[in-house]
């Protein structure tokens, strides 16, 4: 049950920064990263981010250099934010909650990234309207108890 198995984990365009280059420094949060990219592709109907994401790693050594991988991911995410805010992309994500979910899932530092259970309790996933609870965005897995009961409209589709 070693979560840091050998080789590349997942499809190249969906690989989390910590798993790029066949690194063994990863855990199940690589799946949260991939889910964030799937969410992005579903919202836009294409892999707009994958090219920027993959280009950010050109020239990096194949293994090690964890901080350089995080820096490359952060640079790609900055380009994504500019694209989203300039082209009305935030609305396609379902507004501020969708953007908060995306940013929490695509956090380059896995220690700060949402866990899978926290992702599933995120207000956007639950269809709860209003600002995201800080705990769910910070990645510690906590959502407000009143948010757990639902009652809000489903996310815009």
Concise account of the structure shown:
The protein has 157 residues and is mainly α.
SSE topology sketch:
Blueprint (H helix, E strand, L loop, with lengths): L28 H16 L3 H8 L10 H21 L2 H4 L3 H10 L10 H5 L2 H4 L7 H5 L6 H4 L9
Class from secondary-structure proportions = mainly alpha
Uncertain residue ranges: 1-5, 135-157
Helix run count: 9
| Helix content class | 40-55%
What order do the SSEs take from the amino end to the carboxyl end, as H and E? Answer: HHHHHHHHH
Proportion of β residues? under 5%
What does this structure look like?
- The protein has helices spanning 29-44, 48-55, 66-86, 89-92, 96-105, 116-120, 123-126, 134-138, 145-148.
- The chain has one domain.
- It has 157 residues and is mostly helical.
- The chain has 9 helices and no strands.
- The model is unreliable at 1-5 and 135-157 (pLDDT under 50).
- The radius of gyration is 16 Å and the shape is globular.
- Helix 1 packs antiparallel against helix 5 (96-105).
């Amino acid at each position: 049950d070693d979560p840091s198995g050998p080789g590349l984990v997942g499809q190249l365009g969906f690989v989390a920064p910590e798993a790029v280059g066949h690194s063994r420094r990863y855990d199940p949060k690589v799946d949260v990263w991939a889910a964030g990219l799937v969410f992005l592709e579903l919202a836009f109907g294409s892999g707009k981010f994958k090219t920027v994401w993959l280009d950010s790693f050109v020239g990096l050594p194949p293994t090690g250099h964890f901080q350089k991988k995080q820096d490359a991911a952060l640079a790609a995410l900055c380009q994504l934010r500019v694209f989203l805010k300039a082209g009305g992309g935030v609305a396609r994500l379902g507004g501020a909650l969708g953007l908060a979910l995306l940013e929490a899932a695509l956090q380059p530092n896995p220690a700060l990234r949402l866990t899978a259970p926290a992702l599933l309790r995120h207000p956007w996933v639950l269809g709860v309207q209003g600002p995201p609870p800080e705990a769910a965005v910070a990645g510690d897995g906590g959502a407000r108890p009143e948010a757990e009961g639902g009652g809000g409209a489903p996310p815009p589709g």
